[in-house]
Amino acid sequence: MKTSLITGATGNVGLAVIKALSENQNQLNIVAGIRDLEAEQQKLSDFKISLVKFDFTDSSTFENAFSNCDMFFLLRPPQISDTKKYFLPLIAAAKKSKIKHIIFLSLQGVEKSKIIPHHKIEKMIVDSKISFTFLRPAYFMQNFTTTLHPDLVNKKRIFLPAGQSKFTLVDVSDIGKVAANIVFNSAKHINTSYELTCNEKLTFKEMAIKLSDGLDVKIIYISPNLINFFLTKIKEKVPTPLILVMIMLHYFARFQKEPKITDCVKSIIGKEPTSFQQFISNNKKLLTQ
After folding, report:
1. pTM of the full predicted structure?
2. How far is Cα 248 from Cα 16, in angstroms, rounded to an integer?
3. Nearest-angstrom CA–CA distance, 7 and 80
4. In degrees rounded to 5, what are phi and psi of residue 72?
5. Quick one: 138-169+197-259+271-289 is in which CATH superfamily?
6. Cα dist. 248→30, 115, 204, 253, 263 in Å?
7. What count of other Cβ atoms lies within 10 Å of the Cβ of residue 234?
8. I want to staple 250 with a disulfide (CB 3.0 to 4.6 A). Which of 108, 162, 235, 284 is the partner?
9. pLDDT tens digits, one per residue of 13-45
């Protein structure tokens, strides 16, 4: 029986992967790698899985976490930007521990920009000669239940410097289903990459209209200039590194080609991906409080 280590196990994506894997748990041993066993184990109490201490910033945790594992679901914690310092020893430890396959949560369009940390990590994995699958998701719909949630609920607005740029989107639950399918059918996905999107491209103005209709609340979209955006978020006590990530993700999209829609989700899980309207309907309570 395969054993798979899931990092970021208590985050949105990690939980979605574990949930999807658990539906076929008789075929797999699931090990959740978490930084603080005592503080975070409650979040995983609904699943019949093993827990192991795993800390990206502490290489002494790698060997035990990888012990007896065949596969490794890897994501980059957003606060870790020094990929060489943290990910080179991590991937070296995975290779030493005989990990056979790494599924890496990357980023749509990553191959076009060498400055993005995900690009560097992908190269490290390729250079390691460990079999891999790169998942390159579009804009997370769950950003509206996390990073964008305070503005949405408290001010009934989307406040981002994205102009009229169009974004592809994906529901994190679909990422989890794709990852689980790859774990169970890894031989079909060796050394491949997939861009994961739903079937629509939307501007944030269009997203605001859909949110207004789905939530029965008037949501407006405001696209501030960079100075206004930065100062507003500073006043809201948003950490500066997160503000810079938000600028990179939303403002720089103005100067890039529109991302493409793909059929990768359907081709892997056999079902149409979740639409933004479905996401709103499924998460109405989360999006309004």
Report:
1. 0.93
2. 25
3. 14
4. -145, 115
5. UDP-galactose 4-epimerase, domain 1 (3.90.25.10)
6. 34, 11, 16, 8, 26
7. 12
8. 162
9. 999 999 999 887 667 889 999 988 888 888 888
